[in-house]
Amino acid sequence: MKYLAHVEDSLGSEMISIYDVHAGMNSKNPGIWEKREYYSLWYLTPMIAKVSSTKITPHFAFKVGAGGNENSGGGESLEHDLSKKTVFDLKKLLIRMWGKEDYLIFSEVKIEYRLENGKYIPDLYARIAKENKFDYAVGSYLAIELHWKNKVHRSKQEYYRVKNIAAIEINLNKAIKYTNDLYKLQTQITRFFEMSQPAMSLHNPNFRKYFNERKKEIAETERELRERDEALSKTKAILQQQEEENKKTPPLLIPFTMTQQKIFSNRQIVPIVPKRLSVMQKIRIFFFGKTQDQ
């Protein structure tokens, strides 16, 4: 069902909601609303307002013979329709994705552009105008899905992958809701898109490039870790070898002098005599604290 329409056969004309039409039909001057022709948002297909029945929700319906169908004029809710129109007017998005934040500036935005003869219809199909941190090439197209109630089907996401079409999905804030004030709703949606919003990548044509770059980064990190481990292993082996050599080599012992013996005599410390001295030298050191050679 359609809840938003143009009042004239022009994309630049004023838009009106079915709820405003319903209120007008119930006003004191319903004549200006009766049998009035309206036009779908994107393709300007002639429509009429269905507001008199109590069995169905008020909505715009395509005129018989006008060639309209469910792909001729926007999404399934007023909030969704107006969100697409807002991005169409702004020609830019500020998004966060892959740990980066940047503006996507568009030179052209197509609303509900038909791919595969209408089998797949993205909410927006925008042409990139400037370089960006997400590496979407200037001049390339980006499919933008605005998630309000229904997420993108897997078959559609698979189509983007097979055809290598860059595509993202943005969740619309559920706090954005029509409350019988179209101006207020427009203000809410405009503020929403002027702020940075998280986006989810449905397909990234640069995925293989990023994958290979990431693969190289991981390989480089693993190489550095291996080199560090090898260096640590070599250092550990050298330290172990030195420890073994220290165990085999006796420590250098310095004999005590008589003064040292007196200092430590109260502690009953026996002076240590080097093993490589002669017997007479050892005796002299024991009694006199030094040899004649010293």
Work out the strand percent.
15-25%
**Global shape:** rod-shaped
What do the pLDDT scores average to? Answer: 81
Total beta-strand segments: 11
Main beta sheet: strand number and arrangement?
A: 6 strands, mixed, barrel
Which stretches are low in confidence, meaning pLDDT under 50 for 5 or more residues running?
70-75
Helix content: 25-40%
What Rg is obtained from the alpha carbons, in whole angstroms? 42 Å
Q: Count the helices. How many?
A: 7
Largest sheet, order of strands side by side? Answer: 6-7-8-9-10-11
Q: What series of H and E elements makes up the topology? A: EEHEEEHEEEEHEHEHHH
Strand pairing plus helix content: what structural class?
alpha+beta
Distance between the termini: 114 Å
- Count of the separate structural domains: 4
Structure description:
This protein has helices spanning 18-25, 78-90, 154-162, 182-194, 207-248, 258-265, 279-288; strands at residues 4-6, 15-17, 38-39, 46-50, 59-62, 92-97, 100-111, 124-128, 141-147, 166-171, 197-203. It has 294 residues and is of the alpha+beta class. The protein folds into 4 domains: 4-62, no CATH class; 78-205, no CATH class; 206-249; 258-288, no CATH class. A 6-stranded mixed beta barrel has the order 6-7-8-9-10-11. The protein has a 3-stranded antiparallel β-sheet with strand order 3-4-5, with helices on one face. Strand 1 and strand 2 form a beta hairpin. The longest helix is centred in the last third of the chain and has 42 residues, at 207-248. The radius of gyration is 42 Å and the shape is rod-shaped. Mean pLDDT is 81; it is low at 70-75.
